[in-house]
Design brief:
The structure is a homodimer of 307-residue chains.
Chain A lengths: L3 E6 L3 H11 L4 E7 L17 E2 L2 H8 L4 E4 L6 H10 L3 E4 L7 H15 L2 E3 L8 H12 L2 E8 L2 E2 L1 H8 L4 E12 L2 E10 L5 H10 L8 E5 L3 H7 L3 E12 L2 E13 H16 L5 E3 L14 H8 L1
Parallel strand pairs in A: 1-2, 1-4, 2-3, 4-5, 5-6, 6-14, 10-11
Antiparallel strand pairs in A: 7-12, 8-9, 9-10, 12-13
Helix pairs in contact in A: 1-9, 3-4
């Protein structure tokens, strides 16, 4: 089986897990990690023997060109990072997760990918990502009906970042707790800066657009150690649909998943890094990808095993 | 939105539901039903206004050529039916469900489809079919681990037919009951022919290759009316996987579905009839199909809504 050569851009929580997933994929190889020059060589046990570089050009000069670059920087940087790599003739995968901007990002990356004869899969995590595939599949099975995506209990990165941006907040964790019907309450742990008023912070959170629509419970923690105690990586989703196939109702579906969040995001990225090598030039989301492309090995053997 | 023109081959339990699903799909149209000449015009309310014909040639002469023929005859006839339609230049979808023959059928249809520049999706029901997509997706999310497919409680067509073939059996229904770990027990209702020995039938069922591996409970019913009471269309599946993303274990997934069996099979066929018009020439299973192809409407709008 030909080996797929990957490079990893960014070495935060997701990037470390991507290196781990690549090390566990027999048909893939990690050529190296691209990270800030000031960090080179640090946390080397997490690198699992992969060399690290300050740029793709240095990586390519030393290791040869990768088939795909797995983007593991912050979501807000993904569109420009992806465009840069596509412009240099590298295919990319990313887990861009700002839902309402996804169509725009697909259109932008489509242009860059087509121009350079390469491919991109964007929004490739679990939501957006594999949950999106499930939502599409359930609509194909019961076109009339309502799907509820119930997140949690787990830490929401977006909401946590929003609280950390509030004046007087030293650190914060926002947990998403499902309350049914695809709706959620928020449980926020806040470590105030010295001298900051917890009551003022509470009011600012309640007025923030991220929180204004949902039931809210804000709790004060007293130290960084206490914050660490509540900041684990467990997450989950309960995706539910009741609908009709043709005119026959009471078709009932539920998908329940309980996972380590960065590990799953990284694994979906790595499976998509495999898939992207099998796509035609262009930009895609997971609902554009034939599921068999995500798996190692021969298509016909996978059909025999899974269909 | 351009209308997809479908014809329905076979008008049994699945065929009737396919006509119903097509009537409920705003982007699709049923040009007609192809069935035995002796049945033409019967059960006309189920036809929902669709004309019926004894052959595709008669249908095409009167209604024009369909974009796709939905095959709703018995599984054993599917490979030859599909080859016949592909040979005449029609794309097909079918719910062929004899798992161990699927790779062979894909290879046969691939040849016929490529030769005639048309497309086929085979094994397009819920298992094989949408369950296959889930099994593929869960492996992409947690490559190491075990998936259990637990069927039921519901009627197994294959097992019911196997019992009906036993000497002395007037009618039979075999229910599949999950006992965990992807294993099943069988509860079989038998109506013996007049004068036949129930004890002999019981022994023959226990020795049948369809039943020899599973816990078995055979019960006698006394009349066709009693048999009707147990022969409903409810079915379901619980698909479970626990595995690892990279080296991180305890990733847990379960998909639970409770459905009317022929209605769901028909709906998947109709969604695949839409998808097949968007594929390149060739033969496919559901794990080869980009999920977005299954849905009506504009790709980018579906991405905005579902991703």
């Amino acid at each position: 089986m030909a080996t797929i050569k990957a490079a990893v851009h960014g070495f935060g929580n997701i990037g470390r897990h991507v290196v781990d997933c690549l090390a566990n994929a027999r048909d893939m190889e990690c050529l190296g990690v691209i990270r800030r020059a000031s960090s080179l060589g640090t946390r080397s046990s997490d690198l699992k023997g992969c060399p690290d570089f300050a740029s793709i050009d240095e990586l390519a000069a030393k290791q040869g060109r990768p088939d795909v670059v797995v983007l593991c920087g912050p979501s807000r940087n993904v569109p420009s990072d992806a465009a840069m790599y596509l412009g240099k003739g590298y295919s990319t995968v990313d887990s861009f997760d700002i839902h309402d901007r996804i169509p725009t990002v697909v259109a932008e990356l489509q242009e860059a990918a087509a121009e350079n004869g390469v491919k991109a899969i964007t929004a490739a995590g679990w939501d957006p990502g594999t949950d999106s595939v499930l939502r599409a599949l359930l609509e194909a099975m019961a076109p009339t009906g309502v799907t509820f995506t119930n997140f949690g209990r787990g830490r929401s990165m977006g909401h946590s970042v929003a609280v950390r941006a509030i004046k007087g907040v030293a650190d914060a964790v926002s947990l998403t707790i499902p309350i049914g019907g695809g709706r959620h309450s928020r449980l926020v742990y806040v470590l105030p800066e010295k001298g900051a008023s917890f009551e003022e912070i509470k009011k600012a959170i309640a007025a923030d657009p991220y929180f204004v629509h949902d039931p809210l419970d804000v709790r004060e923690v007293e130290s960084a150690e206490d914050m660490e105690r509540v900041a684990d990586n467990s997450h989950g989703v309960l995706l539910e649909r009741t609908g009709a196939s043709g005119s026959i109702g009471n078709q009932r579906f539920s998908f329940d998943m309980r996972i380590d969040n960065p590990a799953l995001t990284a694994q979906v990225l790595v499976s998509c890094a495999r898939a992207v090598t099998r796509m035609e030039p262009g930009a895609y989301t997971l609902i554009d990808v034939p599921p068999v492309f995500l798996l190692p090995g021969d298509r016909m053997k996978n059909i025999a095993r899974l269909v």
